[in-house]
Amino acid sequence: MELQTNAALILIDQQQGILHPRLGRRNNPQAEERIAELLAYWRQTARPLIHVQHLSRSEQSVFWPGQSGVEFQQRFMPQGAEAVIQKQVPDAFCATTLEADLRKAGIGQLVIVGVATNNSVESTARTAGNLGFDTWVVEDACYTFDKADFFGQARSAEEVHAMSLGNLHGEYATVIDSRQILQRDL
Predict the structure, then answer these.
(1) Could you tell me the CATH number of the domain that includes residue 24?
(2) Which helix (H) or strand (E) holds 43?
(3) pLDDT digit string (tens) for 112-142?
(4) What residue stretches are annotated with the Isochorismatase-like domain (predicted)?
(5) Segment holding 54, helix H or strand E
(6) What Å distances lie between residue 48 and 70, 73, 135, 159, CA to CA?
(7) What's the CA gap between 7 and 144, in Å, rounded?
(8) Is 151 part of a structural domain of the chain?
(9) Would you give the end-to-end CA distance of the chain in angstroms?
């Protein structure tokens, strides 16, 4: 696997609201550090960056427009001409210009990071794979939260994360870790 010179890094929902304690216990406490390292690398190598911002339709959401939770976290603030895609559902391709923007720019490879692994990351990666993009999900630069399964069984964030990555790997995306990119061991 080779990282293309125009591979786009897609940062999903790195907003202030995702840090709200009411979301519960999470996994990958180092995820933001990995995201920041990848962001710095993309900026250093002048590769395309796309910041995805969730604007919820629910007033109870941490991403409800008009309050601080919807704003980007300071360290993940878009700079200069970096693209921002605003979405209202988990999938960053749904009812946005993301696919058209990528095709117009000739970008065929996507590297996805952010939150939540089993929600916006997984739904965006599934669509990307279905649309034919060479899609990579960086497992140590994503995280999620504890969640009950359909049958009411409590699942740890680690279990939810692992299952989501298992759903994606080999079918919709390639799951890798940040070292494989930053050390260029591909």
Answers:
(1) 3.40.50.850
(2) helix 31-44
(3) 999 999 999 999 999 999 999 999 999 999 9
(4) 7-179
(5) strand 49-54
(6) 23, 19, 15, 32
(7) 25
(8) yes
(9) 5
What pLDDT shows up at residue 186?
A: 43
The verdict on residue 1 lying in a domain is: no
Q: 3 in a domain, yes or no? A: no
The tally of domains found in the chain comes to 1
Confirm whether pTM is higher than 0.70: yes
User: 100 near 92, Cβ under 8 Å?
Assistant: no
Quote the pLDDT of residue 183.
86
Residue 145, domain member (yes or no):
yes
Q: What is the pLDDT of residues 13-44, one digit of tens each?
A: 999 999 999 999 999 999 999 999 999 999 99
pLDDT higher than threshold 80 for residue 184: no
- 127: phi then psi, degrees, rounded to nearest 5: -65, -45
Between the alpha carbon of residue 68 and those of residues 31, 62, 74, 151, the distances in Å are 22, 9, 12, 34
Average pLDDT over residues 59-68: 89
Give the whole-angstrom CA distance, residue 159 versus residue 46: 35
- Which residue has tokens 């109870």? 60
